[in-house]
Amino acid sequence: MNNFNDKINLIWQIAESLRGVYKPEKYGDVILPMCVIKRFDEIISEKKDDILKAYKLYETIPEQSQEELIKTELDGLDFYNISPFGFDNLCDDQDHLKENFIAYLQGFSSNIKDIIAHFDFNKDIDKLAKNNQLYHVIQEFNNVDLHPNKVDNQTMGYIFEELIRKFKENAEAGDHYTPREVIELCMKMLFMGKSDEIKTKGKVISIADFCCGTGGMLSVGQKYILEQNKDAKVELYGQEINDESYAICKADMLIKGQDTNNIVFGNTLTDDGHKNKHYRYLISNPPFGVQWKKEQDFVTKEHSTFGFNGRFGAGVPRVSDGSLLFLQNMISKMVDDESGSRIAIIFNGSPLFTGDAGGGESNIRKWIIESDMLEGIISLPTDLFYNTGISTYIWVLTNKKEEKRRGKIQLVNASDFSKQMRKSMGNKRKFIDETQIKDIEKIYKNFQESKYSKIFDNTDFGFTKITIERPKNLEELKDDEKFESLEKKDEIAKILQKIEDEKLEFSSKNEFIKYLKIKLKPAELNLLIAKDTESIPLKKDIKEYFEEEVKPHLPSSWMDETTFENIGYELPFTRHFYEYKKLDSFEYIMSEIRDLESSINDDLKELLA
Worst-scoring range by mean pLDDT, 28-37, 392-401, 403-412, 416-425? Predict the structure, then answer.
């Protein structure tokens, strides 16, 4: 660990030497790619002669075929560099340093060039050269020993993660970085009840994140597994749309010895980089409340064409927020066997309740809950994230619930489990410490009712949204110009007044029409009918509810039975943890005001004396 800290401090000193040329939040634009390049340079340094010999054998062959042959010649080396340059000799020719450095980068195999390209590092090479900093940076990195004999893959991974954390915490683009304690809590949920499986010798465990950012969640997932089973084979999969984040993630995976082909660049919604693939554990922190208008045509077509044979069979949400599309994509990648898959995904409050019965969001929630996939939801404290202070939630899903949880959903209110930071970092003013993470885990695992935990049947969150109709009264009609234009308005007015006075009851629209005994066009009839809606819990009998809760207040109303199939689902989380606090009495409040006024008067007298 001392070695780890020494490396971090040395690299951080190089970063701080860039002050003046770069703002602190931009240090990572140089340091992260340079750290990656130096690590790769160290790994292949002792094989340089073999690499150059292999290249000579196949230099006339097209590049794609050439790469495979060179890697085979080098016993399957994951990457290589065919340039004669390296960190040990780049600074020997200062007059041509920029050109030689670019030629050196072009000498890497395509997987490394892909990483460098997405870093968009060439613009920084130009900037460093123009400010006479390129020589300094290369020379200083040459003094950082990242050779595998001194720094193994795991330690190098930790170094890289720590650098990402330091740079991203101080950057404005907080959406690239999920606070580490939130990821740790997600891991507790993701692997809950899977201890025996994780500890199985030689177990192959797949973890996927299709909004993987810089790969923080994947890295923590791998660490979590290996700490419990060093013999496990952890395979990490991801997809990311942001160039720099993709580059960082792919570099981190290569450093950790992962297959970088498993990390795909592109838009998850329109370009499924993991089509027809399935994974055991899925985790994600998709963007909050982001519009998906650009993807709308593609997503809507996939929904309508393929239904549940595609990824978005349950429905499409409003274009203003694509959160539930990312969740549906994850669900489509679950493994359907005896063990099943588990999902942990971070949302804001919107997916809990937005969208009415029959709408996209409600239909997606309906499908998830009726399929018994939603295991639980944990509310997190506000002000945890770097780029937003809003309320956030961890949704936990599985397609193989344990017996005691079947047909149930657990809500855990962890909104008070936080501590204040000494210094804010963007919008992040709070954090969850290790003890609090363990407390939340225990509450969730115990699966018992308490102040912080509520357990519900799946159907508790469902409702039937029916339409209730009734005759309008004259007061509602008097300002309606269309009613004033009706030829039979006086006759209609008398009938409506009688209905109101005598509190007449009707069981259907047809009964009301018969009572009118006046021939009216459909538009004229609709003019006389008031419509409202009522959300009836699924556990309630619709007709009984109507007779008990509606009819006494609206005796002339009836139900539109064509809406009896209009079922919706919402998760009103806050309502279930609301605690009524008795207001102070009027006398107490007035006493407080008088005391305050007296204090102010005393201060004024002292000031004016």
Answer: 416-425
Residue 61, pLDDT > 70, answer yes
Question: What are the distances in angstroms from CA 600 to CA 296, 566, 574, 589, 596?
Answer: 60, 60, 39, 17, 6
Strands 392-398, 342-348: pairing kind: antiparallel
Which pair of tokens denotes residue 291? 């519009």
From residue 476, give the alpha-carbon distance in Å to each of 486, 528, 606: 15, 9, 62
The label of the residue with tokens 């018992």 reads 448
**Angstrom distances, CA of residue 432 to CA of 170, 347, 397, 415, 586:** 19, 18, 23, 10, 39
The pTM score is 0.86
Question: How far is Cα of residue 342 from the mean position of the Cα atoms in its chain?
Answer: 15
Q: What is the spatial distance between Cα 276 and Cα 298, in angstroms, rounded to a whole number?
A: 18
Q: Which two tokens stand for residue 87?
A: 């960190």
Pair 379, 349: CB distance under 8 Å: no
Cα separation of 433 and 563, whole Å?
Answer: 49
Model pLDDT, residue 170: 55
pLDDT tens across 226-258, in order?
999 999 999 999 999 999 889 989 998 988 889
State how far the Cα of 450 lies from the Cα of 411, in Å rounded to an integer: 10
Alpha-carbon distances of 6 from 10, 43, 159, rounded to whole Å: 6, 20, 10
Higher pLDDT, 4 or 311: 311
Residues with Cβ < 8 Å from 334, sequence gap 6 or more?
A: 278, 279, 282, 340, 341, 343, 399
- Strand (E) positions, 80-157? none
pLDDT one-digit tens code per residue, 203-215: 999 999 999 988 9
Token pair 């407080």: residue: 592
